[in-house]
Design brief:
This protein has eleven helices and 31 strands. It is mainly beta. Its main location: secreted. It comes from Danionella cerebrum.
Length: 583
């Protein structure tokens, strides 16, 4: 079995090098049996094994490697024919690791008799004799060495990262059959894509026997990204925390700043910090140049979602026509150790291709857009032109209008009501118009594009304020007095009334507001009158009207339509009025 208590007898105030020498120095003594309760208490304290070169039996240890700087870990197997399992988990960067055996001399296997050799001689002996190589590996897979019958001796695990600084995890045990800290994979460890949509992907996998048969506390975590599959959960977490996990070391000759020491787990005292503050400030620029940081990926680029013990999960809010990589990790919540399923990848479906409507020069086109939807219109004038006049009439909520001329964006505006745009023309130019609907509901529009200069416009001119004003003091039991603004252009105005219930509110009025619905959609009985009106002076462009024949104490919805020369009409904002109950 491992020498599980060697480090318990050592003073943790000793440095890492001294700790290794102490481990070697006690090889001449009989290794005592561990106190299991004390051992379990100590392995839960991560500080006990922080940066230690002694590998505990049955506990996972996290480590950090600087590039091209090897680390060595040691453990002693006291008896022959001992089972042995060593697992190394690379996080992000490929690793090279080697496991070797340094056999114990015969005179050290007794009951503690005889004097141990001096430390320097033992160190020299191990340095000269590299031992028997048991296993080597190079790559970024989670790889294990397992033996059902291992000889006694001093085992050395050497790990190096040749690409970049990297995190890693190691686990070793002499009781692999009973420990089983990693969840076991099912006979089919693949992650399957069961449903594929434009923004969603449904994944399914077979549950781990560790949870279903052995009753261990298991939950699953799903990792989604756009680059590649991950072979371990720690590799995915390292990718999510690049700014914290991977830092390039300052070049030789440059001191660490107080921040650097805090980053690696050393917290400087206040006095030390103040003493070094001026030095740190003076070297800030050089440190910025010498110490580089890998930028942290955007949150949307990689996600980790833990879902409990479910083995079916639907990923949402994906982008259409985009390839994603999906990984599933089974985690034993009792040991906090995980196993990776065989990941998969899938490309979400494309958005349905938009049909492009062709606009005819000088003709009005009706357009309907679904909620949050888009429509594309194409305008290709036959003859050369100097400019294009574009009319957009948003009947309901505001819509976004984008115009590209030969692929170049020339207009991007939100439109509410009627808007007119003047676009500079080019010979043989083609225009692509994109209309994006409202998030509140469906949108209805009227669109007209024309290259004809001058002439009467298809849509009537509107004032800046299209509200109808009701005069409360002029209300009677059978009539109301209203007013609205006009323009300098002579247009026809028609007013309509409709009786509504007492429960009719402003919210109902807003929902029914459709500026494109003309007088032709109204009943003849609802018509009050039509008249022509304009004023050369905009300040005097206002008209009033007394609407009679109303019933006492009743509510009415009033609408004013302005009709253009081509017959297209625009409705003012509806007005809710009520006659007096007592006169």
């Amino acid at each position: 079995m491992f020498s599980r208590v060697v480090w318990m007898r050592m003073s943790w105030k000793v440095g890492c090098c001294g700790l290794v020498l102490l481990v070697i120095g006690v090889m001449a003594q009989k290794l005592p049996t561990r106190d299991e309760g004390l051992f379990q208490m100590q392995i839960r304290d991560n500080s006990q094994f922080h940066d230690s070169s002694v590998m505990p039996d049955g506990a996972e240890v996290s480590g950090y490697l600087f590039r091209d700087t090897p680390k060595r870990y040691y453990f002693v197997v006291e008896e022959d024919n001992t089972p042995l399992l060593v697992t190394v988990t690379p996080c992000d960067a490929p690793l090279e690791w080697r496991l070797t055996l340094q056999e114990l001399p015969e005179d050290r296997s007794g009951e503690g008799s005889g004097e141990p050799e001096p430390l320097e001689e033992q160190k020299q002996q191990i340095t000269v004799n590299e031992g028997t190589e048991l296993f080597t590996y190079k790559g970024n897979d989670v790889e294990s060495f397992i033996s059902t019958s291992s000889p006694s001796g001093l085992y050395q695990l050497e790990i190096i990262s040749t690409e970049k600084d990297s995190n890693f995890k190691i686990y070793s045990t002499t009781t692999p059959e009973s420990d089983q800290p990693y969840p076991e994979l099912p006979y089919d460890p693949r992650v399957d894509v069961t449903t594929l949509g434009r923004t969603t992907v449904t994944l399914a996998w077979k549950p781990t026997p560790t949870g279903s048969l052995m009753g261990q506390p298991i939950h699953y975590c799903v990792v989604i990204n756009k680059e590649h599959n991950f072979k371990s959960l720690c590799a995915a977490e390292a990718k999510m925390n690049l700014d914290d996990a991977f830092m390039v070391v300052p070049k030789p000759g440059l001191d660490f700043s107080p921040f650097d020491f805090a980053h690696f787990g050393f917290v400087p005292s206040e006095n030390d910090f103040n003493k070094d503050r001026s030095l740190y400030t003076n070297r800030a620029l050089s440190n910025k140049i010498s110490r580089g940081y890998i930028p942290k990926p955007k949150v949307a680029d990689i996600q980790k979602i833990c879902i409990g013990n479910k083995n079916i999960f639907t990923v949402t809010d994906l982008k259409p026509d985009t390839q994603y990589y999906f990984d599933v990790f089974a985690m034993n919540t009792g040991t906090n150790m995980s196993t990776a399923y065989v990941g998969t990848f899938a490309r979400t479906k494309e958005e349905p291709k938009q049909k492009t409507l062709e606009l005819k020069d000088g003709k009005v086109t009706d357009v309907f857009i679904k909620r949050k939807g888009s429509k594309f219109l194409r305008f290709a004038p036959v003859s050369s032109h100097q400019r294009v006049t574009l009319f957009v009439h948003a009947c309901l909520d505001a819509v976004q209008v984008q115009v590209r001329r030969d692929g170049k964006l020339v207009l991007s505006q939100n439109v509410e009501g009627v808007r007119q745009f003047q676009l500079r023309g080019k010979p043989k130019a083609k225009y692509l118009i994109r209309l994006r609907g409202s998030r509140k509901g469906a949108s209805t529009l009227k669109v007209l594009a024309s290259t004809r200069a001058g002439g009467k416009q298809p849509f009537p001119a509107l004032p800046e304020d299209t509200r109808i004003k009701a005069f409360d003091k002029l209300r009677t039991c059978s009539s109301v007095t209203v007013a609205w603004l006009g323009t300098q252009e002579r247009n026809k105005y028609c007013i309509y009334k409709r009786e509504v219930s007492e429960s009719y509110s402003e919210e109902h009025r807003r929902r029914e507001q459709n500026q494109c619905a003309g007088p032709e959609s109204r009943r003849k009985s609802e018509k009050v009158l039509c008249k022509y009106f304009f004023s050369a002076n905009l300040q005097k462009a206002v008209t009033t009207e007394i609407i009679t024949g109303l019933e006492t104490g009743k509510s009415y919805l009033l609408d004013v339509y302005v009709v253009g020369h081509s017959g297209h009409s625009v409705k003012y904002q509806s007005k809710l009025v009520k006659t007096r109950k007592y006169c």
